[in-house]
Design goal:
Length: about 210
């Protein structure tokens, strides 16, 4: 199994953590959307990361990939079978992919990617405005998190997506406001202590070093 992309992306990390939670072996195929190889462009028609190949089966998009992995390698489940829990875990995944990550993107772009990876100047006004914008989805998720558990009772794709977004934000020097979001802060510690998360974090540190970050 190959994962195409860089684990610094929250979407790519989501797939790697999901595969690791399931104890799957995978190789990294570092893939740059702006300089796509023929193989990557074939698997990811819109040249976005992540993409996956598993034998002769290929797929792009983090949610599509996690859905495939969960059906093909059911243990442990990351999309719960119980209908309401399943719906809610997909809902949280969507809130993160379509609300939190787009709101957070200017922080990552202007305080990490541009200055540290691309060697260009970041737009601090855009980053500061985004700090405000991420509060709404985080406030919502803070309200949904259970005191001592996960977003929806069992660890699921939504938990992976949220932790993954927070980790990418940390590269931009952003930290959680623990007074405003104490449940997310405690939950993140629990998530980051999981063996699958730690394994991907180690792989990611190697990739980051190779990028000079
Ligand atoms: N919905 C997609 C989003 C993937 C995505 O936007 N990836 C970004 C990296 S974080 C990307 O490839 N951007 C390059 C581009 O849009 O050209 C998913 O969940 O995988």
């Amino acid at each position: 199994m190959k994962i195409y992309g860089f684990p610094l992306s929250p979407f790519v990390r989501k797939v790697a953590v999901a595969a690791s939670e399931k104890g799957l072996d995978y190789e990294w195929e570092p893939s740059n959307p702006s300089q796509p190889t023929e193989e990557f462009a074939r698997i990811s028609p819109f040249k976005k990361i992540p993409a996956l190949s598993d034998g002769d089966f290929c797929l792009a998009d983090s949610t599509a990939i996690v859905t495939y992995l969960d059906a093909q390698y059911p243990e442990p489940p990351l999309l719960p079978a119980e209908p309401r829990s399943r719906g809610r875990s997909v809902w949280f995944d969507e809130v993160i992919d379509t609300v939190l990550i787009p709101a957070a993107a200017p922080i990552v772009l202007n305080r990490f990617l541009r200055p540290k990876i691309f060697g260009t100047e970041g737009d601090e006004t855009a980053a500061a405005a985004a700090e405000e914008a991420v509060l709404r989805p985080l406030d919502y998720l803070e309200g949904e998190l259970r005191e001592d558990g996960w977003l929806d009772g069992t660890f699921s794709v939504g938990d992976i997506g949220l932790a993954s977004s927070i980790k990418t934000l940390s590269y931009a020097g952003w930290t959680l406001d623990t007074a405003r979001h104490p449940k997310i802060a405690a939950w993140f510690e629990r998530t980051a202590a999981r063996p699958a998360w730690r394994k991907v974090a180690e792989e990611e540190a190697t990739v980051l070093a190779s990028l000079g970050g």
